[in-house]
Design brief:
129 residues; alpha/beta; six-stranded mixed β-sheet; 5 helices; 32% helix; 22% strand; globular
């Protein structure tokens, strides 16, 4: 059994399959899940695990070359906006509706237990070399 890192076997396996340019949508419990991408649902109950916990865990495991979040996050969920701005220096913004459209092309969707609005980010995988 792993003693460190991501222990959820579904998430660990999905992360190992990602390649350069693949998208990973980290989303709250209310984000519509498109048909097609692989989904790892971590939601246990409202707020567990939090958006911040999942983002931090994924950033420990992935090389991220770009990220996109909803413009609406800045006003509706400033805590999540600060979190992403602090951890993702090249964060871009689109409308929430456009983020939903972009999420259709994600290779992986990781659903958190977050219950606050607009706690969603689309990460674009980079390479470690």
């Amino acid at each position: 059994m792993k003693k460190a890192g991501i222990l959820n076997r579904h998430l660990a396996g999905a992360l190992a399959e990602l390649g350069h340019g693949d998208g990973v949508l980290v989303c709250d419990a209310g984000m519509p899940i498109p048909v097609g991408p692989r989904v790892v649902d971590l939601a246990f109950r409202a707020g567990v695990p939090s958006f911040a916990e999942v983002v931090d865990g994924l950033l420990d495991e992935l090389v991220v070359e770009g990220a996109t979040a909803a413009l609406e996050m800045q006003a509706a969920n400033p805590e999540a906006a600060r979190l992403l701005t602090g951890r993702l220096p090249h964060l871009t913004h689109v409308t929430h509706e456009d983020l939903k459209i972009l999420s259709r092309d994600a290779r992986l969707i990781v659903r958190t237990g977050e219950a606050r609005p607009y706690a969603n980010v689309l990460l674009r995988c980079g390479v470690f070399f």
